[in-house]
C-alpha cells in the first residue's frame, strides 16, 4: 500500500505563502481529515498532495518518490482526487462518467479491457448506482451526483483517495450517506482516505486522524478523542464552546456558545469552557 507525506513543503500562490515547512505523514489505511478556519490552506494542501499545485519548496512524497518527478499516469494509478464541486459535461451519463476513472490505464497498446469493465461495475455497486447508470449526471439529486463522482474516483482503483469537501452543499441526509460510503470503503478495502471537511463533529466521528491547520502550519495532529478540546476549538476556530462526548458514537462533540432561540445565561457564558 502506498505511503503519502509532505517533506518540508511550503505552499502558496504568487508571493503569498499559505503553508510553511509542513511535515505530514498520512497514516496508511486510515481516514485523515484536514480541518481549520476558512483560508487556512486545507484545500491548498490537498491539491499539492495530488500534484495539482507545485510547492514553493520541499516535496510531496508518494511511495518513496517525489511526486513532482513522477509521470501523470503513474500518479493517477496510485492516487485519485475528487475536487470540490466538480462540473459534469452536459448530457454525460453516470456510466460514461465512471468510465473516465479508467483513463490512466489506457494507452495505444492497451485499450478497454475486462479489468476496466470489472472496475467500473464494482464502483457502481459500491456506490449503489447500478440502476442509475444510464441516467445523465445532471438529472440526479445532489447526493446521487456526488456518489457518481465518487464512483469515478473508485473506478480509478487507487490505494489513496483525496476528497476536497465532498459534503459541501449537501443536506444532512446526503452528508451522512457520502461519509458512510467512504467509511465503509475504508473498513472493507483498507483504502487510505484524505478529506477536507468543515464540520468538526463529522470530522471527529469519521476520522481516525485529524490534521488541524492554523497560522501556516499544523496546530495539532492525532486522534479526535486526543486532540479535540475546547482550547483546540478556541485556538483553531476562535470559537468558545463546550466539548462533550457524542451520546451515540462516543467521539468528541462540539457545542458552540452563541445566541440562539434559547439564550444561555450570562453566568454560563462567562464561565471558562469545559476542556474535556
TrEMBL record:
Keywords: ATP-binding, Cell membrane, Ion transport, Iron, Iron transport, Membrane, Nucleotide-binding, Transport. Residues 4-240 form the ABC transporter domain. The keyword Membrane applies. CDD domains: ABC_Iron-Siderophores_B12_Hemin (cd03214). It comes from the Bacteria. It is a peripheral membrane protein. GO terms for molecular function: ATP binding. Its main location: membrane. It is found in: Cell membrane. This is Siderophore transport system ATP-binding protein YusV.
